[in-house]
Amino acid sequence: IEGTLSRSQYLCITIPPLIMSFSVPSDVAGGLYFLDGKRVSGEGEKTFPVYEPRSGTVVAQCPLASPSTVDAAVRAASAAHSEWGCKTELERAQVLHAAARLIRDNLEEIARAEVRCNGKPIYEARVDIASSADTLDYFAGIAPAVLQGDSMDLPGGPLTRFAYTRREPLGVVGCIGAWNYPFQTCMWKIAPALAAGNAVVYKPSPFAPASPVLLGEILTAAGLPAGVYQVVQGEGETGQALCEHPLIRKLSFTGSVATGQKVQQACASKNIKPVTLELGGKSALVIFADSEVKSTVAAAMLANFLNQGQVCTNATRVFVQRGILEEFTNELVKEANEKLVVGDPLNDNTRVGANINEGHLNRILGYVESAKKEGGTVLRGGVRVHPEGVENGFYLEPAVITGLNDDSTAVREEIFGACCLILPFDTEEEVVRRVNNTSFGLAAGVFSKNLARCHRIAAQLEAGTVFCNSYNDTEVNVPFGGYKNSGHGRENCPDTLKAYTQIKAVYVNVQDSLEHCF
Questions:
Q1: Residues sharing a CB contact under 8 Å with residue 71, sequence separation 6 or more, in sequence order
Q2: What are 459-503's pLDDT values in tens digits?
Q3: Can you give the pTM of this predicted structure?
Q4: Could you give the CA distance from residue 445 to residue 216 in angstroms, rounded to a whole number?
Q5: Which of 118, 447, 481, 507 is the most buried (most CB within 10 A)?
Q6: 3 state SS for 81-136
Q7: What torsion, rounded to 10 degrees, do the Cα atoms 302, 306, 308, 309 define?
Q8: Which tens digit of pLDDT belongs to each residue from 345-366?
Q9: 89, 278, 428, 491: which one is catalytic?
Q10: Are 305 and 340 in contact (CB under 8 A)?
Q11: How many percent of the chain have pLDDT more than 90?
């Protein structure tokens, strides 16, 4: 064997081509479809304007994919899947690891492109892009072990009968992403899907369409076969066509509860397919009087002001035990005034960037006004600002508000903006009841030096993630998802990888003859 075959041939592993050279294009908003391994302009279709949040200017006209365009993209992905799905987990892992290396090699340029797409500060974008590379490495690394089948002896003994299982790709999966983390939410979906051997048709949010196209170029440079990853752009009609397509075998969606309901209905309208929904939240941070105040203030700022408050796990409801209420409130306002520098998100000293668009900014301002009308006091922020050099961007001075009750509009509804609502409480039993009094259940946090209390409360909170003495931690090997109206299914973790496969059971009779019972 050694005289005729290389080791790689002997092991039946096809080594992918060497990594092609890759650089981030200067115009990341040019050609916003990604089909059959390359950018496509989508000429002849209706378009919508794409805004750069930091400057408020229109930077591109993005095509709206018609149902026929979606159909062509799905069918091309289905054809490409036959090659990708037949590769071993190790072969697929080599491509995904190569893509992760390309991301790290071009991290700064990709992060700057993400800022232009989304408006978040550059220091946050760098973390998001690095984490995305980790996600590729993680799923590429665990796939060979997690996707193995089982073998079972059957009555009669292994010499006569046994069974085994195979984990097989679903085929083509559809993914609809969010605008608050354009690159990262795309990666959370496509990394496990590709590692499991599926092809993917991805529809970004129309508010942040560019990053997933850039990711397609990276994957292609790393050796992903053309057509395995497709990007189509659009709004409701495009999303509906993707959900209803008979060749789509699974759909993963991140977005609002209202749209998530429509997605689930559409996915059951023409055929039956599994759906993962990562939806909104109205999370809470509970701070007990025995906590160290400086740490709780840092947690409250992480829970409210990252990414301009445009984070689904954000804890806009900050419940503070009365014994430290005044001290906490004063310290939070002081820290916010000192640390929350609003400005051009491409500047390293900026800590609060631009909101995604004018409409969303006005929506947040509307919640501030409703809080005032319902008896709230705005201790700082809550107004639009115009930083030097980017005066026309969509900027908000983060707000800290007190004086509201649990029935107030801002306390009940998801704001999805930088508005921290401080709510006093007295007892443990009371605060658990109030935290759970919502239709959402994505995340919650508890601060106390009494770890027994933290564990006790964590067990009672109706949330998919509970942070004890921290907030907004995210690791790729830890499940992420919600309870109640915050969705179902999980992202990250081994269970996510398994969810992109289907199990086949195979019965084997090794005897020469088969007896029957008739």
A1: 241, 245
A2: 999 999 999 999 999 999 999 999 999 999 999 999 999 999 999
A3: 0.93
A4: 36
A5: 118
A6: HHHHHCCCHHHHHHHHHHHHHHHHHCHHHHHHHHHHHHCCCHHHHHHHHHHHHHHH
A7: -60
A8: 999 999 999 999 999 999 999 9
A9: 278
A10: yes
A11: 90
